[in-house]
Design goal:
Elements: H1 14-21, E1 34-40, E2 49-50, E3 61-65, H2 68-79, E4 83-88, E5 96-100, E6 103-108, H3 114-131, E7 132-142, H4 147-158, E8 168-176, E9 191-198, H5 207-210, E10 212-213, E11 223-226, E12 232-238, E13 241-246, E14 250-251, E15 256-257, H6 279-289, E16 295-298, H7 305-312, E17 316-321, H8 324-336, E18 343-348, H9 352-358
Parallel strand pairs: 3-17, 3-18, 4-7, 4-16, 8-15, 16-17
Antiparallel strand pairs: 1-2, 1-18, 5-6, 7-9, 8-9, 10-14, 11-12, 12-13
The structure holds S-adenosylmethionine.
């Protein structure tokens, strides 16, 4: 099979990760432990917060502050093969720093070193593949900069089946939007790409939950017909067969999504996080590719769209981000929701002292002194 190679490509050997999974050592990067710094069990009448580790053995969703390179190995012992759906929207290698005032929120520059970005992404994909359940689905959100490399990487990690029927590639989703200006020396770049892969040929996909009514729009040279009861049908013949669809029949959306707007400056959904994605985008993914109570993972959760929707739809979730602003923004979003399931806030053991010392939340759940960060789009 074709494989992408870069300078100093290092293959994460399965044995190293198994070692981490057994918690029996491994190298320093892979043996960190997560500790709970806050447990949140909202009461029905008001949302009470307790800054103590949870004593309950019942499931608690998890909001984890930390670098994914330590957090994902730390999740392996408990969650290898157990995550039903992963959506990630990692740094795109934009060459930019995203700031809040003067403060760096996250850096996406990579010193223009594509090799180091690819190694970083590759290690992420390998770990996420291990966390994914055998029937799990994986969505990777990127743009024109590195999608083409990522697809080859994903084929390596998930496997390649030429006809798309086995494990691996399912869709290259084009999310088209209208934000930003228009280039004059090339066509305007107005889409992101979301790569959809599955771990095996058995996976959940609920077209009926995300389908739209066929309606009265003519498509694909179809002929409109009206039966004796006045019902409208669209028909088309292909390979000697006639296909007929009622106006009220449902159509699975295509892989080009142009019906979900980007978040404009004054969009009520906006919570000030630079690279926030629209709820509708991630909701479509969760509705199509997960069931109630399924476990959803996003290790670059930013403003918390994925855990927010997962909670709203009754899924369990694990969300991670290395940024303090991301964690406080996500926390605020979760607590503001109509439905708040118990969750814990965790960090890596080494960071626990710092987290206690530096994080204090104001009444809105934001970290004190925090301001909104600049819009990226
Ligand atoms: C494109 S943003 C995600 C935006 C998010 N999907 C949303 O809708 O708000 C990428 C996120 O990845 C986080 N990030 C970057 N490198 C990371 C790392 N090594 N570990 C964990 N999070 C990281 C950044 O802090 C940032 O919040």
């Amino acid at each position: 099979m074709a494989e992408i190679i870069w300078f100093n490509k290092s293959k994460p050997e399965h044995a190293e990760f198994s070692q981490a999974a057994n918690n029996s050592g491994g190298n320093k990067l892979q043996s960190k432990v997560l500790v709970t710094t806050e447990s949140i069990s909202p009461q029905p009448d008001n949302q009470q917060l307790a800054v103590t580790p949870t004593s309950s053995t019942a499931w608690h969703n998890r909001l984890i502050r930390g670098d994914k390179q330590y957090v994902l190995p730390a999740l392996l012992p408990e969650f290898a093969g157990k995550v039903n759906l992963i959506y990630i929207d990692p740094p795109f290698m934009t060459g930019r720093d995203f700031k809040s005032g003067e403060r760096l929120v996250y850096s996406d520059t990579w010193h223009s070193n594509l090799d180091s970005y690819l190694q970083w992404l590759y290690e992420t994909l390998v770990l996420l593949h291990q966390l994914l359940a055998p029937t799990g689905s994986f969505y990777l959100h990127l743009d024109w900069r590195v999608t083409h490399y990522a697809r080859v990487l994903l084929d390596e990690v998930f496997g390649f089946s030429g006809n798309g029927g086995g494990p691996g590639f399912k869709n290259e989703i084009i999310w088209q939007y209208q934000s930003g200006g228009r280039a004059r020396k090339r066509f305007a770049r107005k889409h992101d790409t979301i790569l959809f892969y599955t771990k095996s040929s058995r996976y959940c996909f609920h077209a009926e939950r995300i389908s739209e009514r066929r309606g009265d729009v003519k498509r694909n040279h179809m002929r409109k017909e009206v039966d004796s009861d006045g019902r409208v049908y669209w028909t088309i013949s292909s390979n000697g067969r006639i296909y007929s669809y009622g106006e009220d029949s449902l159509m699975t959306p295509s892989d080009v999504w142009n019906d979900i707007s980007h978040l404009h400056q004054k969009d009520p959904e906006r919570n000030g996080y630079a690279t926030q994605k629209p709820t509708a985008l991630i909701e479509r993914i969760l509705l199509a590719s997960s069931e109630e109570h399924d476990l959803i993972l996003d290790c670059f959760c930013g403003s918390g769209v994925t855990p927010g929707i997962a909670q709203h739809l009754g899924r369990r979730w694990i969300a991670c981000d290395q940024g303090e602003l991301a964690i406080s923004t996500t926390r605020t979003r979760l607590l503001a929701a109509a439905r708040v399931d118990p969750f814990v806030i965790q960090c890596l053991e080494d960071d626990a002292v710092d987290a206690h010392a530096s994080t204090s939340y104001d009444s809105t759940g934001r970290t004190k002194g925090e301001t909104n960060i600049h819009d990226a789009s």
